[in-house]
Amino acid sequence: MFILSVLKDTIHIQPYDFHKHKFDALTDEINRIYANKVIQDVGLCICLFEIISASEEIVHYGDGASYAKVTFRLVVFRPFIGEIIEGTVSSNTFEGVKVTLGYFDDILIPTHNDDGWKFDHDTQVWVRLWDSQIPWTSPEDKYLYMYMDKDTTIKFRVIEEKFTDIGTKGPPPKRTGAVAGQKAPMPSSSSLPSDVMIVGNNRGGNTQNVKTDTTTNAPTGGKLVPYELIGSIAEVGLGLTSWKWD
Amino acid sequence: MQIIDKRNAMLSNYEVLALLREMDEKQREQANSNPNVKFAENLKTIQFEVIQNLSSSESPSSTQTPEQIETTLTQLKNYNLTKSEKLQFINLRPQSIAELELIIEDCEDRFGMDTLRELIYIIGSNLPMPGQVVRRLESGADALDDESMTFIHYPSEHQL
Asked: Is the CA virtual torsion A105, A111, A116, A118 positive or negative?
């Protein structure tokens, strides 16, 4: 589930952090930038693991902050394809069953890919149909029913991962004569404000859609998430852990 | 930002939990000596959520110790398992043949039923579940009998 990734970045230390030890200042700054953020094709960053090397700090003209090139390792949440994970059912949506791990919510078990699923309209939950091994007489007994009730523990296999570049709402683009309406250049520096990496603009660049999408969380898949896992429970032993597979 | 190595190493859930707990401890110390100290909100959020998830009673990592993991790994050495399989054993603590078969790739070709039973025993005795510890150790033979029953039962399902 968790891996270590090696990254290199230029880290600013603001003057108000100068009283700290250099190591502490860098640690705090790296954690501030990366913790709980998704990096494309890397995964969800948890925290700093260790600093491998750091250069001498440089102070630029007209700026009080010091800059240091730092190579470091991050703890990253990035399950590999085929890994088995235990989570809890957070909701049942049109697309399938949503599973949460507490710190990571964007896990979907789609229910439209095979016919082993049924939607129970009374309780509004998805039901997984398992072929019953016991000889059956009435058609209802043909399957065993696994109800995806909210907050039950579920075990699934990761079968796919999706990274979506939702862009960043980083620092405002520098005034370099950009034409109005032109797509803002993606900031490549790491000086991202702490809360922006997740909020993004639409793929088509339609800013109108962003507001509605992020607020309504429509079941039709309007919400864009930077990192999504697709799971499957179509194997013996997967599914709700309350089931005794023996 | 420059990505040098995406997958440098894998960490077990226990290692992550230990790291975060250590960090939590440090922050608490700092807060004690200086009540005005502030920590990044995003760090606190993810730290709290991961610790909560990994130390919940359902998570095997909540009761593991470094010694347990070490002995498990040394005992699993001779079984020709891949790194990720061993990692998942530790993270998930499989307790039945069905769970093992999920984690191990090409399980039926690579391991016989006796080996799987041995694996279950190694995992069960080295990474005990609180509450289940005594029962497993006292009636180890019974547990193995149960599993052999499921084994007899299992292939017949395939033939159907």
From this structure: positive
